[in-house]
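Attaching the record inline, Q. Sequence:
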Amino acid sequence: MDHEAEAWAGAATGDDEGELGPAAWTVRGRALPGPLVDLLAAGGWRHPGDEVMREVVPWIEEPLHFPADVAEMRRESRSLDFFADDERSSALFREVRGSVVGSVDLPWLDVEQAVLIVVNRRPGEDVAIALDYREDAEDPRVVGSDFRADRHVCAWRIVAPTLTDFAQRLGLPVGGSAGRPPGATGWTGAAGGAGG
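Structure, as predicted:
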């Protein structure tokens, strides 16, 4: 198995273990955008360094961690359900289920329309960066939790208008489908299909 095929198969482990293609690249039923799939498959979804993160997301002072694969993104994103389903946590973290409370916008996060892509490095610091699919499923905006403005309640803020913009600002290689195995080149994230 060549390096690209190994990266593709390795990133597609977890809840959809053994599946390849679009279903293997979903988190919480949301297809990951093509640029993120490419970065994960090629091993390019990496922390760019604390200094770069401070420039891009200055209100998050805590050190951050980039999940290495889809399985880790799935595990990290499960916390969204807990926070949204617990009344006190929902109010503190401003996380809700849109199907229960109706449409919400920032500073609230609709957990049914979100996937965590960057999380706190140290346990208990409760900071995160998420894809927010409410406006665009193919290249979602990127939002970050903010406890700096008010230490008593989280506010979700826009980090970048799209994932592509976020990755470029971090200096990550985006554009093209170099990380995708043969046969997957036509698939571009949400347009590619199946949930998982």
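Confidence is low (pLDDT under 50) at residues 1-18, 177-196. The first helix runs from residue 3 to 11.

More tomorrow.
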